[in-house]
Amino acid sequence: MTTPPFFHPDTRRADLAWTDWDEVRGWLESQSFCRVAINDDPWPYVVAQTYAFTGEAFVMHFSRSGRLARLIRENPLVTVEVDEPRGVIEDALHAAATGYLSVVARCRATIEDVEIGDGLIARVTAGIVLLSAKRRALPEHTAQA
To answer: Distances from the Cα of 34 to the Cαs of 49, 82, 116, 137, 144, in angstroms?
Structure first.
């Protein structure tokens, strides 16, 4: 696959950067839950949502009369975050290390009403403007003698 121009594999922590677009895309296609953050005043509104990933956008469906739909109509700039914990290891001092996969996508959303059954729902297509990915592997276990 060709790496899309919106994929920005640089992160503040270079050791956590997940730079293989084929892996990132495959993982996003295998997931179904995300968090969507939309501007609201005075704080961002964040909600969990199901999605489908197209390779260029996150597609979501929800109530066309709800708060999320209203906020997207007012400001189409949204952030989509998808993550997956991969396990926790605690040491003797109960400090924990966590393995995870994480993607943050800054998107421009379009919203349209679509028929479902005898009613209408909102379909949002959050087209990706910038996407970064991180992964943290769990530390290797060493046997204690």
So the answer is: 5, 5, 22, 21, 39
